[in-house]
Amino acid sequence: MTTEAYTLFDTAIGRCGVAWGRRGLTALQLPENGDLETQARLARRFADAREAAPPPGVRRALDRIVALLQGEATDLSDIPLDMSGVPPFHQRVYEVTRAIPPGATLSYGEVAARIGADGGARAVGQALGRNPFAIVVPCHRVLAAGGKVGGFSANGGVATKMRLLAIEGVKTHVSLPLFDGDGAFGFDPESAINHLRDADAALARLIDATGPFRMELKTAPSLFAALAEAIVYQQLTGKAAATIHGRVCALFPRAKAGLSADHILRVSDQKLREAGLSRPKILSLRDLARRTANGDIPTLAQVHRMEDAAIIERLTEVRGVGRWTAEMLLMYRLGRPDVLPADDYGIRKGFAHAFRKKDLPSREEIEKRGARWKPYRTVASWYLWRAAERAGRAKRAAAA
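Above: the chain sequence. Below: its structure as tokens.
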């Protein structure tokens, strides 16, 4: 497989990357967290290739990919691919996968059966996890048994897979985390752990000492409800905050879908104060409600199409919603894989404990070390919080 050049191109899901050689496309890269990261990923994979404008044949292929990602039922199965460096078993898997039309799906087991490898569902999954031709070899159309979504190795994980399926009109049995549902992560935790172990030996020791990744996502009926709850909980113990939040919700006994902007806009300050809210929090909730009613706060559908930085920028315009609150929403509501709250005290304390620092590290020090954890800094953060808890227990035991 010889790659001559690569470029980025605009699609409905963001800026993708493509690489090509004389025999056809050699890779299609789904968007990373930004253009620079997508470009860097291609440059690392194809160190001898140059960035260039695509020739006519590649340009026509890109136009068809763009059309597919805009919701058109476009057939990409005849786009030339250079599979000269792809293992034979993977090639057979990719050939069957390419034949799945938009809007249809197969299971890993069904793909295995079609290539004469009964019982080879796991091997099929591993082959698709290494698919260099995303979209053109539509691995997102291959699901786990029983219609479950299964894993996805691209940036965004399962959330990206579900988004691609939704564009093609495929309904799945899993809701994205922010909706009331099963709270599934938008990435594969096992893949994240393996990546972190390989990337950082010291973090690997922390993972071994802590045990399995047990972070749990919180569901909510709307983005407004999630943010309103976050505002209520600020600077309070969990028990006190839960009591006040429960009293606020009880003001609207008929609200089966949780708090809404309309609820907050029409309730009096007096009733909110009686529920236990301080004046600053009432002002914050009212600002959130007004911005939601005016369309300044993204909807659930919109937020799932936005990058982390754009979400943080929009949400921190709300009175009382800072970067930390937005980062917690990204992690614990949306299940985003690559969030590192470097200013969080627990992160700093856990970092000092895990990496044997005498003093709490600066934001810059954490971000520098955290660069090697991408694109799974959310998982690394969870382990740093566990390190902080262990450090606290050890300090209390020593003082006893």
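The mean pLDDT is 88.
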